[in-house]
Design brief:
heterodimer; A: about 775 residues; alpha+beta; Aldehyde Oxidoreductase, domain 4; 4 domains; four-stranded mixed β-sheet; 32 strands; about 25% strand; globular; disordered N terminus; B: about 150 residues; Ubiquitin-like (UB roll); DNA polymerase, domain 1; 2 domains; five-stranded mixed β-sheet; about 35% helix; binds FE2/S2 (inorganic) cluster
Chain lengths: ~775, ~150
C-alpha cells in the first residue's frame, strides 16, 4: 500500500524551504522517545487501581475503558474501527468505551505513531489490536479465577464482566483492576472466533460524532492557548514570483495588526491579534511582484506539452484484426480539505509545542526539532481532529512554517491558510495525459494493450487475464508541486484504462460487463463483485433514450465495482441518477463506516469527473473558492447504493478504494447515453456538455422516440421540436463512425416528424442515431439484434 | 464595543464593529463551533441563526447584529437533544465533521421555515453548503428523520 503514496511523490529537489515544496513524511525513520501532553486533553489522573496492560488499554475501577489510538482521524473513522477491534477481543461494554488520540509520551520505547495514509491502517494493525485486546481479557479472566480460586477455564467474559461457568458469581472489569494489575502477561492469549464477534461487523457511529454535532470537537484551527497570535503568509500570485517592493505602512495601521515581517527561510508574514485583522492587514499591503519567471505558463500550454511529449506508440504485431487508439487527459486537482491547512506552534528557547492536524505526527516532530536545533524530546506534537486529509496532511510544509514563524516572533502563533491560499499552496494531483492503443483478434479478444502516460500512472489495473499491457511513464516537470491525493495515481490510471477497456468492448461488439467478466479469473473476488454490481443494476434491462448505464471495476487491497446511470439531456446536460457501489473488503469492522467511505468516494469521484479542476493562468493558480473549483452539492446527488460483500479475508483497505472505478463507469454511461466518448476531464468542460454553458444558443428541446429498440430490420423514429425551422436531419452511424443512413425529415405545423427506417443489411450491434434541428442535437443508441 | 445576544446570553465583544461575526465568535469569544471554510459566503461552514434565519457569519459584520438573537451550534441545545442533532448521531452523518455545524444550522433554519421539507425543498435550501467529504446522502436522510418522517 505504500506504493500508492510513493508513486508520484516527487524526489526532493532542493534543501531550502518553500511552502508547498516539502517532502512527504512517508518512509521517514520514526523516533520513539516522547514527552508531554496536550493541554486540551488533560492528563488522566492515574488511579492506583486502574489496569493498563498496554499503551492502548486502560480500565478504571468505575468500569470506564479508555482506548488510546495512534492514528489521525480525518473522517475515515479509524478511531472508531480501532476501538471496535480492541473492544471486541476485550469483550468490553461498548457504552463504557472512551477513545483518545495517542500522545507521544504514551508510546513505549519500541512503539511509534505510524503515518496515517495509504488506506492500510486496519490492514496492518488488525492482528496486533486483536492480540492486545485478547491479552487484556486473558489477564482479567486470570484475575477473576484467582479471586474465586477456580481455573480460568471455568470463567467466561462478556460485556465488561466475567462470570463463572456453571456458577452464579459475576465480577465486573472495574472491580478486577487491582488484581489484574499483578497478573503475569500471557504470551499467546486465545483470539475469538469470528462467529463470536459481537462488536466487529456491527453498525457503530463514529465515536466523535456527538462532539461534532454539538460544536465541541476540536480541529487544528480551534486550538486556543493563552496569548496566541494569528499569522498569514504573503502568497506569491504565481509560481516563481518574488517581491520587488513592499509597502507595509497601511497594513500596520490596520487595527490588530502587530507586525509585517520577513521570516527567514519562509517569506513575508502578517502577524495579528486575530484572523480578521491578519486578513485586513494583508489586503492593505502594497506589493510589487515580479512574475516573469512563468509568465507564459497556462493550462493550455501545460496541456500542449503533455499531449506532444510522446509522438508515436509502438505498432501492434502483424495480423492484429483491429486496432483501437484513444487519448485521455486529466487536470490538476487541489486537496481542498474543508478545514484549510493550519498549525499552531509555540516555540520557546529550549522547547517547542505544536498542535497540528497531521497524518505524519512523528515526521512533524523530528523535522521541527531539526529546524529548531533542539533534541527531539524537547518538541511536543499534539494532534487534534483533521478537517479532511485526502493526502494533503502527509506534507509538513505548514507545520514547519508555523514553527519558523513562532520562532521568529517568539510567541505562540496559529498559522493558517485562507481558502484562497489553500488553493495556491498544495501538492496537486498532477495533470496527466494517457495514450492507449489496443489490438483485437477476429473474435474480439484483446491481443495487446499499450498504455503510455505523461505525468500519469498506469498501475493498479484489474487483473484481466490478458497479456500484460506495455507501459511507459514520461515525466514533465512543471512548477506546480505534485503529491498524494486520495487514491493517488489510480485516479488517472483507472479512468484511462477502464474507459479504454470499454472502447475495446464496443469495438469487439461485446457487452462491456460481459467483456470484463470473461477476462477475470473464474471465482476471483473481483469477478464476483463485478457480477454483483451488474445484478444490482439489473444490467440487461433496457434504458430509455437519453439514458445510459456504465460499468467499471478496480482491485487494490479490496475489490470494487461500480455501475453508474446517467441521463443526458438534448442540451448535453448530464445528470447522474444512480450509482451502485459494491466492495469486498474482507472482514468488515464497521459497515456504517465502510458505507460512509464508499459514499464519500463517489462524491469525490463525481465532483472531480464532472466539475473540479485547478487551472493555471500567467503562471498562477486560477481557483479561489469551492465555487470556481467546483464541487458536487446536495441537489446534484445521485442515489448511491452501497453493497458490502460478506468477506472472510483479513480486513482490507477502504478509504481510497471506492474512488477509481466511479469515474470510468460514469464516462462509460455517458457513452451509452450519447454515443460520445468522454476522454478529457472535467466533463463539464467537454463537448458533450459545452452547449449547456453557451448562453447565446437558444435551444429547443428535441423529443425523440425510437420504436422498437432493440430492432430487427426497421424502426420508427418520431419526435417533436419547438422551432421555426421546417425540417430535422436524421443520421445513423455505426460504431466505427460510418454513416449508414442520412436524410431530412419535414416537420408538421405542430413540430412533429416521423420516419420509418430500414437497415436490414447492416450487422447486429450498436448504432448511433443523431437528430439535428438547427443547433439542437439529440443522440441515441439503437441496438440491432 | 458591541454587545451581542448569543445563545441567550448577552456578550460584550471587544472587536471593531465591521468584524464579521465568525471571527468575533472564534477569535474573540473562543466559541470555535462555527467553522471557517471560505470566508466569502460560498461554503456554508460558518452558518448560524440570526432571529431564526440562516446567516453566513463570515459575511455578517457584528455591528449589524446588535439587538438580534444569534444561535450558534453551541446553543442549538445543551445536550444534543435537538432533533437534528439526534438524527445526525443516529445516522452517523459526519465524516471529518468540519462542515457539519454549518450543515446543521442551515438545516435548523430550513425546519423552522418548512417543518416537513420534501427532497426538492432540501435541494433548494442546502444546495450551497459544501461537504468536501460527501456526506450529502446522510444529510438528506437525517433532515427527513428530524422532521419526523
Ligand atoms: S466560511 Fe462562511 S460561507 Fe464559507
Ligand atoms: S464531513 Fe468533512 S467536510 Fe463535511
Amino acid at each position: 500500500m505504500k506504493k500508492l503514496i510513493k508513486d508520484i511523490v516527487p524526489a526532493p529537489t532542493r534543501r531550502s524551504f518553500m511552502l508547498g515544496m516539502m517532502v512527504t513524511g512517508v518512509g521517514v525513520v520514526m523516533s520513539s522517545a516522547y514527552s508531554q501532553v496536550t493541554p486540551f486533553e488533560p492528563v488522566d489522573s492515574l488511579s492506583n487501581h486502574s489496569f493498563s496492560p498496554s499503551t492502548e488499554i486502560k480500565i478504571d475501577p468505575d468500569g470506564t475503558i479508555t482506548l488510546t489510538i495512534a492514528k489521525s482521524e480525518m473522517g475515515q473513522g479509524i478511531r472508531t474501527s480501532f476501538a471496535m477491534i480492541l473492544a471486541e477481543e476485550l469483550d468490553a461494554d461498548w457504552t463504557k468505551v472512551i477513545v483518545r488520540h495517542a500522545r507521544p509520551d504514551d508510546m513505549k520505547a519500541n512503539e511509534h505513531i505510524d503515518t496515517t495514509g495509504g488506506s492500510n491502517s486496519i490492514l496492518l494493525k488488525y492482528d496486533h489490536l486483536r492480540k492486545v485486546g485478547a491479552t487484556a481479557r486473558a489477564i482479567l479472566i486470570a484475575a477473576a479465577a484467582q479471586q474465586w480460586n477456580i481455573s480460568p477455564e471455568n470463567c467466561v467474559s462478556k460485556n465488561s464482566s466475567i462470570s463463572e461457568i456453571n456458577g452464579t458469581r459475576t465480577v465486573s472489569y472495574g472491580e478486577l483492576t487491582e488484581l489484574a494489575s499483578i497478573q503475569g502477561i500471557p504470551s499467546n492469549p486465545p483470539l475469538k472466533s469470528s462467529t463470536d464477534f459481537s462488536i466487529i461487523g456491527t453498525r457503530k457511529a463514529h465515536i466523535d460524532t456527538a462532539d461534532i454535532v454539538s460544536g465541541k470537537a476540536i480541529y487544528g484551527l480551534d486550538v486556543r492557548v493563552p496569548n496566541m497570535k494569528y499569522a498569514l503568509y504573503i502568497n506569491p500570485p504565481a509560481f516563481g514570483a518574488f517581491i520587488v517592493s513592499i509597502d507595509t505602512s497601511q497594513a500596520l495601521k490596520v487595527a490588530g495588526v502587530l507586525k509585517v515581517e520577513f521570516v527567514p527561510d519562509l517569506g513575508y508574514v502578517v502577524l495579528a491579534e486575530n484572523t480578521y485583522s491578519a486578513i485586513k492587514g494583508r489586503e492593505a499591503l502594497i506589493i510589487q511582484w515580479n512574475t516573469d519567471k512563468h509568465a507564459t505558463l497556462d493550462s493550455a500550454e501545460i496541456s500542449r506539452q503533455l499531449q506532444t511529449k510522446i509522438s508515436t506508440l509502438p505498432t501492434l504485431p502483424d495480423g492484429t484484426f483491429s486496432t483501437i487508439e484513444a487519448q485521455y487527459e486529466l487536470p490538476y486537482l487541489a486537496h481542498a480539505t474543508m478545514e484549510p491547512m493550519n498549525c499552531l506552534a509555540d516555540v520557546r528557547d529550549n522547547r517547542a509545542e505544536i498542535w497540528c492536524g497531521t497524518q505524519v505526527v512523528d515526521y512533524v516532530r523530528s523535522e521541527s526539532a531539526k529546524r529548531l536545533g533542539m533534541p527531539i524530546e524537547s518538541v511536543i506534537v499534539n494532534v487534534p481532529l483533521l478537517g479532511g486529509g485526502f493526502g494533503r496532511r502527509l506534507y509538513i510544509d505548514i507545520a514547519i512554517a508555523a514553527v519558523l514563524i513562532s520562532k521568529a516572533f517568539k510567541m505562540p502563533v496559529l498559522f493558517m491558510l485562507t481558502r484562497y491560499d489553500d488553493f495556491r499552496i498544495d501538492y496537486y494531483r498532477p495533470a496527466s495525459y494517457h495514450l492507449c492503443k489496443g489490438g483485437l483478434d477476429a473474435s474480439g479478444n484483446i491481443t495487446d494493450i499499450i498504455h503510455y502516460t505523461v505525468n500519469g500512472d498506469n498501475s493498479g489495473m484489474p487483473p484481466y487475464q490478458i497479456s500484460p499491457p506495455t507501459t511507459s511513464n514520461e515525466l514533465i516537470n512543471f512548477p506546480l508541486p505534485v503529491g498524494a491525493w486520495r487514491s493517488v495515481g489510480h485516479t488517472s490510471s483507472i479512468f484511462a484504462y477502464e474507459c479504454f477497456i470499454d472502447e475495446l468492448a464496443f469495438a469487439a461488439k461485446k457487452d462491456p460487463f460481459e467483456f470484463r467478466r470473461a477476462m477475470l479469473p473464474v471465482d476471483s473476488r473481483l469477478r464476483i463483485v463485478l457480477e454483483k454490481a451488474a445484478e444490482l443494476a439489473n444490467w440487461n434491462s433496457p434504458m430509455p433514450a437519453g439514458r445510459g448505464r456504465g460499468i467499471a471495476c478496480y482491485s487494490w487491497s479490496s475489490d470494487v465495482a461500480h455501475v453508474v446511470e446517467v441521463t443526458v439531456s438534448s442540451k448535453g446536460q448530464i445528470k447522474v441518477d444512480r450509482v451502485i457501489a459494491v466492495i469486498d473488503c474482507g472482514i468488515v469492522i464497521n459497515p456504517m463506516g465502510v458505507e460512509a467511505q464508499m459514499q464519500g468516494a463517489v462524491v469525490d469521484a463525481l465532483s472531480t469527473a464532472l466539475k473540479s479542476e485547478i487551472t493555471i493562468d500567467k503562471g498562477g493558480i486560477v481557483q479561489q473558492t469551492f465555487a470556481d473549483f467546483g464541487w458536487l452539492t446536495i441537489n446534484e446527488m445521485p442515489k448511491i447504493e452501497v453493497h458490502i460483500m460478506p468477506g472472510t479475508r483479513q480486513p482490507l483497505g477502504v478509504g481510497e478504494m471506492g474512488f477509481p472505478s466511479v469515474t470510468p463507469a460514469l464516462c462509460n454511461a455517458i457513452f451509452q447515453a450519447t454515443g460520445k466518448r468522454v476522454r478529457k476531464l472535467p466533463i463539464q468542460k467537454t463537448e458533450i456538455s459545452s452547449v449547456e454553458s453557451n448562453p447565446q444558443t437558444d435551444f429547443n428541446d428535441l423529443n425523440i422516440n425510437v420504436f422498437p429498440n432493440p430492432i430487427t430490420t426497421f424502426c420508427t423514429i418520431s419526435g417533436s421540436v419547438q422551432t421555426p425551422l421546417t425540417e430535422v436531419s436524421i443520421s445513423i452511424e455505426n460504431i466505427l463512425g460510418s454513416t449508414i443512413v442520412k436524410l431530412n425529415s419535414p416537420l408538421s405545423d405542430t413540430g412533429q416528424f416521423e420516419e420509418i427506417i430500414e437497415f436490414p443489411l447492416s450487422p447486429a450491434g450498436v448504432y448511433f442515431l443523431t437528430v439535428t434541428c438547427g443547433e439542437s442535437r439529440s443522440v441515441h443508441s439503437i441496438i440491432k439484434t | 464595543m458591541p454587545t451581542l445576544m448569543i445563545n441567550g446570553q448577552s456578550r460584550e465583544v471587544n472587536a471593531p464593529p465591521e468584524m464579521p461575526l465568525l471571527w468575533a465568535l472564534r477569535d474573540i469569544l473562543n466559541m470555535t463551533g462555527s467553522k471557517y471554510g471560505c470566508g466569502v459566503g460560498v461554503c456554508g461552514a460558518c452558518s448560524v441563526l440570526v432571529d431564526n434565519q440562516a446567516v453566513r457569519s463570515c459575511l455578517a459584520p457584528i455591528s449589524t447584529l446588535v439587538g438580534k438573537n444569534i444561535t450558534t451550534i453551541e446553543g442549538l441545545s445543551t445536550d444534543n437533544s435537538h432533533p437534528l442533532q439526534k438524527a445526525w448521531i443516529e445516522l452517523d452523518v459526519p465524516q471529518c465533521g468540519y462542515c457539519q455545524a454549518g450543515q446543521i444550522m442551515n438545516a435548523a433554519a430550513l425546519l423552522i421555515s418548512i417543518p416537513k421539507p420534501t427532497d426538492e425543498d432540501i435541494d433548494n435550501w442546502m444546495h450551497d453548503d459544501v461537504c468536501r467529504c460527501g456526506t450529502y446522502q446522510r444529510i438528506r436522510a437525517a433532515i427527513h428523520q428530524a422532521a419526523g418522517g
